[in-house]
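Ops channel
N.P.: pipeline sanity check, posting one input/output pair.
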């Protein structure tokens, strides 16, 4: 999943999947969540937050909760989460950043 998010790896089964994650990278960087280049041996704070949002988007959330971030970023997160789910790749909630996700979700 990290390879997809960073734009590398062979997990992108189609150009459409690669394009969805490229869009996520662009929008995330514009909103202050830059994604590290492929091969970086650590996760940045922004990547952890994005992974948390992807994990939340793969699950049912309380009615009335809005996705984190601006609408375009939220849509990109939702689209990438759907692709990951279709690929049978499920993210575990990242409890370390759960408070940021809850705060940003505006429930």
């Amino acid at each position: 999943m990290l390879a997809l998010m960073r734009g590398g790896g062979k997990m992108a089964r189609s150009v459409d999947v690669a394009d969805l994650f490229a869009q996520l990278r662009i929008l995330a960087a514009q909103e202050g969540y830059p994604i590290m280049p492929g091969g970086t041996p650590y996760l940045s704070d922004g990547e952890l937050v994005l992974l948390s949002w992807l994990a939340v988007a793969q699950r049912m959330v309380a009615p009335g909760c809005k996705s984190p971030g601006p609408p375009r970023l939220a849509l990109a997160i939702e689209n990438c989460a759907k692709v990951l789910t279709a690929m049978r790749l499920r993210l575990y909630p990242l409890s370390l950043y759960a408070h940021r996700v809850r705060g940003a979700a505006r429930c």
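N.P.: looks fine end to end. The mean pLDDT is 80.
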